[in-house]
Amino acid sequence: MPCTMSQTSVSVFTTSLTALSGVLDKAAAFAAAKKIDPSVLLGYRLAPDMFALTRQVQVACDQAKNGSARLAGVEPPKFEDNETTFEALKERIAKTVAFLKSLDGKAIDASADRDITFPLGPNKAQMKGADYLNHFVLANFFFHCAAAYSIVRHCGVDVGKRDFIGSIPLKMI
Predict the structure, then answer these.
(1) Is 63 in contact with 141 (CB distance < 8 Å)?
(2) Has residue 143 been placed in a domain?
(3) Domain enclosing residue 13, as ranges
(4) What are the C-alpha distances in Å from 167 to residues 20, 52, 94, 113?
(5) pLDDT tens digits, 109-131
């Protein structure tokens, strides 16, 4: 059975965002245990020209909700980008996951050959739905999830590959 657009988007985003929420739990616990001001971790970046942890999480959520909404042909909710705590970032993730679960999978599945127009910096770009998902949205989503994970790991939080991958359906043989 071929994989559908909705399985490749909503299912993947939901699993990865749930894992990211768990990574944030570990980061918050680390900050509390080490008596580190949480804003230090939230503001940390891997390089001067990269986004800080807070912005990485926000953009990962935006890629998932905006990309999936475009594929479903609906308007995505607007989030204010005003999170300043681990709890607020986890709420943003939860709102994103709830929105993703509300989308019509059949509408997403029907988008593979439809032209998707999206902002790209100050311009607009257009791709077929399958290309948009597979070559733009997923790549950007995982880039920002990996950057968020890497910031947390770099700061000393005990996270590993299982934390990044999250709870995926495995059948042990």
Answers:
(1) yes
(2) yes
(3) 5-165
(4) 11, 26, 16, 31
(5) 999 999 999 999 999 999 999 99
For residue 157, the surrounding DSSP H or E stretch is none
Is this structure's pTM higher than 0.90? Answer: yes
C-alpha to C-alpha distances, 15 to 2, 56, 147, nearest whole angstrom: 20, 17, 17
Q: Identify the bridge partners of residue 134 per DSSP, sorted by sequence position.
A: none
Radius of gyration of the chain (CA): 17
pLDDT in tens, 145-169: 999 999 999 999 999 999 999 877 7
**Structural domains of the chain, count:** 1
Identify whether the C-beta of residue 19 lies closer than 8 Å to the C-beta of residue 167: yes
Q: Which residues pair with 127 in a beta bridge?
A: 116
